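User: Show me sequence and structure for the first protein, then do the same for the second.

Assistant: Starting with the first protein.
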Amino acid sequence: MSVTITQNPIIVTSTSAAATTIVTQGLSITKIRWDTVGHATDAHVATVKDKNGAVKWTTTLTPRGTVGEIVYPVESDFSPPLFTDGLIVDVLGDGVLYIYIFEKPPFKTT
């Protein structure tokens, strides 16, 4: 699956995470949800940066003990919204990242 930027939320999968800029315009992020259920394991990392490489949000799954434990989605709500000048998701250990934006699509990519 690739990055989906034609809707809100923006959707990024672990196979599409890269050091390239996804969106070039300024964005106001209202929520980030990392769905790791059935995918990620302990110590996986997710990182969101602006187009200049400044880290805006990052999290690491903490050890859960035994392998069979359930991993719940990680959610961060931002009030006021988290402003980022462009968007890069260069690290996504596994699973799917949903980035909810205040602005309406279409988003600028060049």
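Switching to the second protein now.
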Amino acid sequence: MMYMLGFVLYGSTVLLPLFVQTILRYDALTSGLVLSPGGILTLISMPIVGFLLSKIQPSRLVIFGFVVGAIGLWR
């Protein structure tokens, strides 16, 4: 599971900016502005997940994260 998580995180980190710059013809600044909400959302969700770990089973949070990540990368 950790291998797959690393593969998906690294792949999306490398491939999404290349897709936006190559296929959509955005410049570097616009590409960064398009992809920055994902980083901001990650920053905001970290304390929320820390709080939820005391209330919900960690396996359920992991499954939810995988499902949300899969849907986001699929779309």
